[in-house]
Recover the amino acids of this structure.
């Protein structure tokens, strides 16, 4: 009971803290004159991944690599199969292929890079350097290409920043939002890890499974909120672009930082099963987007069914 309450409290704090941090960061970026393009590309991208960042770093530093890695792999799987599946059922999403071609390609390549670098059974500091270098290269490429040319991707990332409403308006309100958000993220990560590890031990479930499922879904709630709101507003490019960007940040940025701070051995089930599910989810999303230029309700149902099957297998076979 105590572990379950701690888990729920941690998820709630991570969600509220992530929301506060994003709003404070976006308001601060606007206040100092940062362009909507750069705000959407970097601030919103990093902001929605803040819970994954804090939890994975915390887990890595506390010698819990299965949760650190499982959180990222599970979040990427859930972002596509659960969140985009749900968004497509809420509202079929017509997308601009040109707006998503680069990010879809980078997401698939980042997934392949993860599989390649983890082939030896662990991610070390050299691997971390490759991940982080890849993220920096992606951000530079994205910003330069979008600022020089009028392409749909630029409009999409600018729209991500514009989706944020009811922002703090004064300097002290921005500071409070940032400090409170960061504090809630740190406190939420501690509660989440305490509850998740305790629950895993009490139920006889591996930490990898808990990290890949419960922790991953809990830390993905900011992405879910942004994407669902965008879907309800018929802003399909923002919803899909948010997920693609988040998955790229998760692999190249968060996993890179976590592995740099503490080398991360890979759980055998992740190597045998989960990383391939992550790659398969990325591939089927790209296939759906570029064959029909939309995510229909039946495609959303396929994604959701895939996630249900993944969860069932996670708690039975593995």
């Amino acid at each position: 009971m105590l572990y379950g309450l701690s888990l729920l409290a941690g998820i709630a704090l991570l969600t509220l803290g992530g929301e506060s941090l994003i709003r404070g960061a976006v308001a601060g970026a606007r206040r100092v004159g940062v362009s909507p393009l750069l705000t959407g590309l970097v601030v919103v991208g990093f902001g929605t991944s803040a819970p994954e960042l804090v939890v994975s770093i915390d887990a890595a530093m506390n010698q819990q690599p299965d949760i650190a890695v499982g959180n990222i792999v599970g979040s990427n799987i859930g972002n596509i199969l659960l969140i985009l599946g749900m968004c497509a059922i809420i509202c079929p999403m017509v997308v601009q292929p040109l707006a998503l071609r680069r990010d879809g390609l980078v997401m698939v390549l980042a997934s392949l890079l993860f599989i390649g670098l983890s082939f030896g059974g662990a991610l070390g500091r050299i691997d971390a350097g490759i991940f982080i270098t890849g993220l920096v290269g992606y951000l530079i490429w994205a910003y330069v290409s979008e600022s020089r040319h009028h392409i749909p991707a630029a409009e999409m990332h600018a729209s991500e920043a514009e989706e944020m409403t009811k922002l703090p308006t004064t300097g002290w309100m921005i500071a409070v939002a940032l400090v409170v958000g960061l504090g809630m993220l740190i406190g939420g990560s501690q509660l989440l890890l305490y509850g998740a590890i305790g629950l895993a031990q009490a139920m006889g479930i591996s930490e990898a499974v808990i990290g890949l499922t419960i922790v991953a879904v809990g830390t993905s709630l900011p992405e879910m909120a942004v994407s669902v709101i965008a879907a309800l507003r018929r802003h399909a490019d923002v919803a899909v672009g948010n997920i693609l960007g988040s998955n790229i940040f998760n692999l190249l940025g968060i996993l890179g930082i976590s592995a740099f701070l503490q080398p991360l051995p890979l759980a055998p089930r992740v190597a045998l099963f989960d990383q391939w599910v992550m790659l398969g989810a990325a591939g089927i999303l790209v296939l759906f987007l570029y064959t029909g230029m939309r995510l229909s309700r039946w495609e959303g149902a396929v994604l959701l069914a895939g996630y249900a099957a993944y969860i069932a297998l996670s708690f039975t076979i593995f």
Remarks:
- The longest helix spans residues 171-203.
